[in-house]
Amino acid sequence: MDPLSHLLDGPRARGAFTLRVVMRPPWGIRLLDRSALTLAVVTSGRVWVDVGDGGTAAAAGDVVLVRGPEPYSFSDRSGRSPTVTVHPGQRCVAADGQEVRVSMRHGVGTWGNDPEGPDTMVVGAYEDDSEVGRLALSALPRLAVLPGERVDPALVSLLTREITSDRVAQSGLNDRLLDCLLVMAVRAWIEDAPDHAPSWLNARRDPVVARALDLVHERPADPWTLAGLARACAVSRSTLADRFQRAVGTPPMTYLRTWRLTVAGDLLTTRPDLGLEAVAARVGYGSGFAFSAAFKQHTGLSPSRYRAPAAAP
């Protein structure tokens, strides 16, 4: 499995919030829902997206990725004051204090200030970071806007149709379609902005480093040493150490430790069925005690404390 596949192996929406939004200017939506990640596709008109730095425009067909949980806003133009604020639990409050979640609903899966409005979006929100995987979240920018056609428009059309229908298993199908759309969007972002992607994704230009990364990523549980990894890459220890440092920016064994603990963090939040010893074994630690000590040093939290937010109802 290549490193990008590891990055994109996380999205597993479970009852994700999906909606078709239809608005007519003037409008502004302030999002305080604390979602881990929001994906929106502008299907008509123009939308201004602001994460607190002035914002950027997205046109019809563009894909927007916003990494939470900090607030952000969608609006018809820059500087627009919010006409609606969305709070946790998708509670929608207008500027005058009125609850508008129900009054702005227009049939199945459609919401906005005008059912015939020119500005439309399909929005999907991963409300819990365990659904996306902290590995994927850590690699993404706060805001990314991808140009139109970077994801398959047929998939967007299908998701829109499912959101606005009322059929058996709709929620489950919406989740899987949203996952597919997210994977396409993240892949496109990495291809379009390689300089902003994690160093381990860009280090594959060196075949020796690429081989070392593949081995570490595919087999984190193996008892790797610098000598063993160099032997598997058919180079000397000094050659591997030098080329890896230059390409990735960190020594091979330091990278291995960080990767193991990053994968462990994802396992702790996405696999509640795995006990501490099982997680430790999957990332190359001989005991739960050794793993716990390393994990706490790396994150500042014990594995149980790290896992607790994801396990909370």
Question: In a nutshell, what does this entry contain?
Answer:
The chain is α+β, with helices and mostly antiparallel strands. The chain has helices spanning 3-7, 129-132, 134-139, 153-163, 170-192, 199-202, 207-218, 226-232, 237-248, 252-270, 276-282, 288-299, 303-311; strands at residues 17-23, 28-31, 37-44, 46-50, 56-59, 63-67, 72-75, 84-87, 91-94, 110-112, 119-126, 143-146. The chain has 13 helices and 12 strands.
Topology overview:
Layout lengths: L2 H5 L9 E7 L4 E4 L5 E8 L1 E5 L5 E4 L3 E5 L4 E4 L8 E4 L3 E4 L15 E3 L6 E8 L2 H4 L1 H6 L3 E4 L6 H11 L6 H23 L6 H4 L4 H12 L7 H7 L4 H12 L3 H19 L5 H7 L5 H12 L3 H9 L2
Parallel strand pairs: 1-10, 2-8
Antiparallel strand pairs: 1-11, 2-7, 3-6, 3-11, 4-5, 4-7, 6-12, 8-9
Helix pairs in contact: 4-5, 8-9, 10-13, 11-12
Describe the 3D structure.
42% of the residues lie in helices and 19% in strands. With 313 residues, it is of the alpha+beta class. The chain has 2 domains: 3-196, Jelly Rolls (Sandwich); 201-311, Homeodomain-like (Arc Repressor Mutant, subunit A). The strands form 2 sheets. Strands 10-1-11-3-6-12 form a 6-stranded mixed sheet. It has a 6-stranded mixed sheet with strand order 5-4-7-2-8-9, with no helix packed on it. Helix 4 (153-163) packs antiparallel against helix 5 (170-192). It is elongated and about 65 Å long. The protein starts with a helix and ends with a helix. The model has no long low-confidence stretch (mean pLDDT 88).
